[in-house]
Amino acid sequence: MHIYNTMTKKKEKFVPQVAGRVGMYACGITAYDLCHIGHARSAVVFDVIARYLEFKGNQVTFVRNFTDVDDKIINRANQENVSSKEISERYIAAFHEDMDKLNVRRADMEPKATDYIGEMIELCEKLISKGHAYATPSGDVYFRVRSFKEYGKLSGRDVNDMRSGARIQPGEEKEDPLDFALWKAAKPNEPYWECPWGKGRPGWHIECSAMSEKNLKLPLDIHGGGQDLIFPHHENEIAQSEAALGGEFARFWVHNGFVQIDSEKMSKSLGNFKTIRDILEARHPEALRFFLLSKHYRSPLDFSFATMDDAEKGLVRVYECLAEVRSALQKDFNKKMAMPEEILKEFQELKQAFLDAMDDDFNTAAALGHVFGIVRLVNRVLEDKTLRGKDGTKAFLEQVSAEVNIWSQILGVFALEPADILLELRNLNAKRMNIDVQNVEDLLAQRLEAKKNKDFAKADSIRDTLTAMHVEVRDTQNGQVWAINYTG
Ligand SMILES: [Zn+2]
Predict the structure, then answer these.
(1) Is 237 part of any known ligand binding site?
(2) Most buried among 7, 199, 230, 361, by the most CB within 10 A?
(3) Contact 26/60 with Cβ under 8 angstroms?
(4) Residue 488 binned pLDDT confidence (cut-offs 50, 70, 90)
(5) How wide is the angle at C-alpha 153 spanned by C-alphas 147 and 156, nearest 5°?
(6) How far apart are CA 332 and CA 366, in angstroms?
(7) Annotation-wise, does 321 bind a ligand?
(8) How many CB atoms lie within 10 A of CB 106?
(9) Average pLDDT over residues 222-236
(10) 233 is in an annotated binding site
(11) How far apart are CA 291 and CA 336, in angstroms?
């Protein structure tokens, strides 16, 4: 398999250092607020990467941290007059609740920064003793950026260009404006720990260096996060870890793209911030997960309810097919007849294409395209009267069900009971579009009655009423089936 490496700016063949074992670290959230759709994307992306590496037979150790000491947490705690711990615990719990809904598995280890204070202090001391960092009289510790010759190698920045934009803020005792804080002297009303430089607390970047070194073997096979973390956060992690410990910090740097809202950058100031909870009020969590996977992880993803509708229609199409497969498998297959070779061949090719897409830098968008290819193939088989009741069809549909299990294992979607999720999606859309489900059911009963009485004019007029309500009716062997035609 090949993975795009931000460090080398190209796709490279991925082989773990130890055959069959992968150590992966992804930067987690700063726990001071509810998670937004950008967090959801990053969490789903690295969840799928971990799942796929496992599917390929690796034993994956996935570490994702929680930042539980930070200016934003302290500010919020002071606003609410509670402890920082209370804030971070509240939002870690909210993160888990949201991610459980999105079927994001827990990481194998979810370390919290405050559990690694000793390790961070040790790392600072090591950097000071090697001349890569210095403590100031007031008790801050800074990393001496110019002492690390390779600084800028991940983000492609040149230290000399950065220099011009950087300023030393009043009160900072930096040697050079480029230097960044490893450790900060505690201000009043801040949590602090006793350390060799007085009372203080960690800067943000140092925690990931400490927690990855402690929990995984360096170099990490994969280090990941959102694109916004490339600079300065990941650049600083590299500087700290490589300067302190020598050697390479991480072999593959994997970054997911941004999420835009209605083609605009998401920001609190624009007021277009979408939390996961905002979205799940009106949408099914699997529809959101499916939407997040509908684009390649490095591409920007434009969120709007209209783009989400398109993704949801795709999800419905897959589940409708799975419902048909399930009901077809209940029927009798009492006649001998092998499935035609060309159908089996096409099925094998599409299955392989799905895996090839995942091997090509986890291209879930292309992989889902092949899922739809299989859905079309299955629908063709189910509609073919000559194949009905034949044991070859049964064997084929069983293989399809096994394939769906593989998709679920890798992508974390398509594992729900088709009838249940289709009903839930329809109810959510009815609610969103102010369609009264009971009213629809009543109209359908009247239409059935009219048809029985051969009053076709009335039956047609009821259908027109339903169409005007965005309700589409189909007459099937199992009676009237309705769906909502939503345009978004
Ligand atoms: Zn980090």
Answers:
(1) yes
(2) 361
(3) no
(4) very low
(5) 125
(6) 35
(7) no
(8) 12
(9) 97
(10) yes
(11) 41
